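From the shared-data thread, chain only:
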Amino acid sequence: KMIDTQTTKPQDYTDPLFNGELLTLQEAATLLKVTRKTLYAWKRAGKIRTVKIAGSLVRIPRADLANLITA
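Structure, as tokens:
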């Protein structure tokens, strides 16, 4: 299952897929046992989506990681 490849806008924080939990790239990489570089590649490939907060800070919804694991 592919996820929207566009970066999510701040107003989308209410998206039910977020479940209110956003992870840093390092947290997500640690959970998945991959590098941050791999996460960026997955973002470009449309496997995960990211949320930009406070300018250039990037977060990944925890639900998207669950989708990766169960896909």
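The longest strand covers residues 57-61.
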